[in-house]
């Protein structure tokens, strides 16, 4: 008996979906890989500030924090500009390459051409602001690629999988490159020469990623793929009012924003080096363990991301977010109780405890990866819902508006972590791996490492209760968008007939 061929998403849902080839998705997300290379360079910026420009360590940290806030503020303006501009050959490649060129020029100025030339903090800040502008241009355009490439619910989550692959592997590889290859060649010192050589190599590598990303989007980077569906052409222009309406009238976006912000704050605080010192160095007694676990977790995390992509494609971003957020919350509670019941200093000396701790920790990392994939698909759903709601296709505006919250929260993460450790006595000196564990350190570490993520996931679940863009609703959204596009095309044909 012959088996019936499996239905495509278009056949099953009654919607003609826009699909991309797998290689197009894989190449397009290399823009994220390029951005990660610059991310590693920015991690070396504090050394450059001190060695090349004579900026004190405390002032260096303040500069990087304040400029990050500026990064969040400039995003909305750049988002609106990107929405307004339309070229005959599209806009993604223009802003991706233009942003890359600006950020590369700024990096070469800071790392290669200007150090040890007598320029000080004012010059550094001015060029770093230029870097931020180029970085924002490139990142916003890069994050627009997913919604433009595909609106197929089964394929859409795979965009986030490829972005996640580059987000994990590229910084790991290039961080190893700087510490294993370049640093030993300069006496294991972060000298100006070492930083310059690193920057030149990294910028050249980022160009390869960037060109391949442009190849990936070349087929869809056309004006017709950025059109609105509002029949009233007088309302088709994008303005600040649209951003305000997005924030105040788009309920799914509001809930997506709350969910993403809660998760982001928890992850930023948890990733602070001082929190790692408390958890891995003082309580578990092995400071290197956190870094090793981070590397070990990459491959199973990617496996979870691939599985999560399929789950999200089948059940929708809302269902996937809720299901896997519950799993994250349960696993985090289990680890918290485990660490409270067991003497943490004895975990690494007992094989059973070690296996139990690591297994649940890796499962928690994997389930949180699925949530990340689902939320990536959710952003694309929100963009399509806004197209249906207002008649305007606003991928740059949605991305830029979200980035405001993302950047502000990222800036607050370090302050929150440092304030928390100050409450347990570390006011004059920073915690060191050789410090003795105490009850206060245990409770604060667990509160920040597991408790804050638990709170974030709980807030996310509350926000998702009123999020209406489930799998069935998104099918209806796509049908309404298709009908509006057909009506717009019919109106244009009728107008052309009258003019003729």
UniProtKB/TrEMBL annotation:
GO function terms (MF aspect): symporter activity
Keyword list, A-Z: Membrane, Transmembrane, Transmembrane helix
GO cellular component: plasma membrane
Sequence intervals crossing the membrane: 94-113, 119-140, 161-183, 199-218, 289-307, 319-341, 347-364, 408-429, 441-464
Any one of the GO BP annotations: carbohydrate transport
Stated name of the protein: Sugar transporter
Taxonomic source organism: Agromyces aureus
